[in-house]
């Protein structure tokens, strides 16, 4: 599980993720200096630390390194959410509370994501005995979100992220697919 990024690590990774190309310490430094006073060696140390932690890979380019993100911000966020969820003594209740905090736009994005994951990784129908037992027990609705979130281990997370992002962009522009 990834440890949450520190404030400066997050500022550096934000640029690496946004630019989505190999970047140098100098490029990140110049962009950060628009917001704060910061030394080259500080940015270099942070980027080296991010490399040591596995967040970026680097390749030699002349006398400098070019750094590239190993995964996406969405994958990082998902890992943090998964870790927080796994730490709960009642994961279903934690999901219900989390869903209750969501805005309407976030709920729509969640529904889009669930549809994409279910389309790409359909959940096999449970055996008839399991369905009958579930109907007889009438479990609390708190269990339903946990089942919906479970298939989030999609084999193609980047494609799913892009599809959800496209859907959200269409919604914000007033279009619906």
Average pLDDT reading: 80
Q: Tell me what portion of residues adopts beta-strand conformation.
A: 5-15%
Q: Give the quaternary arrangement of the chains.
A: single chain
What's the β-strand tally? 2
What's this model, at a glance?
With 177 residues, the chain is mainly α. It contains nine helices and two strands; from the N terminus they run αααββαααααα. The model is unreliable at 139-158 (pLDDT under 50).
Word description of this protein:
This protein is mainly alpha-helical and 177 residues long. The two termini are 35 Å apart. A hairpin with a 2-residue loop joins strand 1 and strand 2. It has a two-stranded antiparallel ribbon with strand order 1-2. Residues 139-158 have low confidence and may be disordered. Helices cover 62% and strands 7% of the residues.
């Amino acid at each position: 599980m990834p440890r949450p990024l520190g404030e400066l690590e997050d500022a550096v990774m934000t640029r690496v993720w946004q630019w989505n190309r190999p970047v140098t310490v100098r490029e990140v430094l110049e962009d950060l200096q628009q917001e704060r006073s910061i030394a080259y060696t500080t940015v270099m140390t942070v980027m080296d630390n991010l490399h040591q932690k596995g967040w970026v890979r680097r390749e030699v380019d002349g006398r400098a390194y070019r750094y590239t993100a190993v995964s996406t911000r969405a994958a990082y966020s998902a890992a943090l959410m998964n870790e927080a969820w796994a730490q709960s003594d009642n994961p279903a209740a934690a999901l219900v509370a989390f869903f209750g905090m969501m805005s309407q736009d976030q709920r729509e994005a969640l529904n889009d994501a669930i549809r994409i994951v279910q389309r790409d990784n359909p959940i096999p129908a449970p055996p008839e005995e399991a369905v009958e037992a579930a109907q007889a027990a009438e479990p609390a609705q708190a269990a339903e979100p946990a089942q919906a979130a479970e298939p989030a281990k999609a084999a193609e997370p980047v494609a799913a992220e892009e599809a959800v992002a496209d859907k959200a962009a269409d919604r914000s522009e007033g279009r619906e697919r």
